[in-house]
Amino acid sequence: MRVYKVKNYDEMSRQAAGIIASMITLNPACVLGLATGSTPEGIYRELIKGYNNGDLDFSEVKSVNLDEYQGLDPNNDQSYYYYMTDKLFNHVNIKKENYHLPNGLAEDAAKECARYDEIIKSLGGVDLQLLGIGINGHIGFNEPSEKLEKDVHLAKLTESTINANARFFKSYDDIPKHAFTMGVRTIMSARKIVLAASGKSKAEIMPAVINGPITTAVPASLLQLHPDVTIIADEDALSLL
Ligand code: PGA
Fold first, then answer.
1. Which end of the chain has the least Cβ crowding within 10 Å, N or C?
2. Domains, the chain, with CATH or none
3. Ligand 1 pocket, mutate which of 38, 39, 198 (most atoms under 8 A from CB)
4. Is the pTM of this model over 0.85?
């Protein structure tokens, strides 16, 4: 695990975007694993800048997202499909047929999980997986638990995650309680992983991720077993380390 401590959110965004940009430059047809949430917004802004400058070409890039809420229409502004189009895809020249997310409206959840697993396989796996980190140590929606799922699955969100998401929804009833997510094997199979973290709310979990025991109680601690993980975190996120 390489850990880069940066000053603040903007620096984290530039550094992480720099790694993704290098990947695209070295391998223009790379498969990116993408994440949503507050953390990657700045990273996506930097990538859009790179595209607008003429430094980055997404025409051959493929992407698969980590997760999607069950039950949200892609046009719902809280769906991850909406987030990705709004914050990245609509602003660069990635082709629509080349980006993928789980379908939150799929009627048969098991079939949808198998379909999404198959997409990732058919692309030859993920070259670079971008991750945020939940305040409870989740990656994707692999929540702390006695056992973790390997492959794409429908996850039940923990109260901690539901509460962390509450700020985006009008009422508790509107907050999705389940999401489709890559499993830990899917994530760990990525050839390179970049985890970005910013802010005091992440300070408590970061030592457990980086130095703590490897445990399903902190799913991100499993990343210690991966041969190529880069953590880019700001001073606030690393303040307890
Ligand atoms: P955040 O979410 O980027 O909004 O903090 C991270 C996560 O829950 O994985």
1. C
2. 2-234 (3.40.50.1360)
3. 39
4. yes
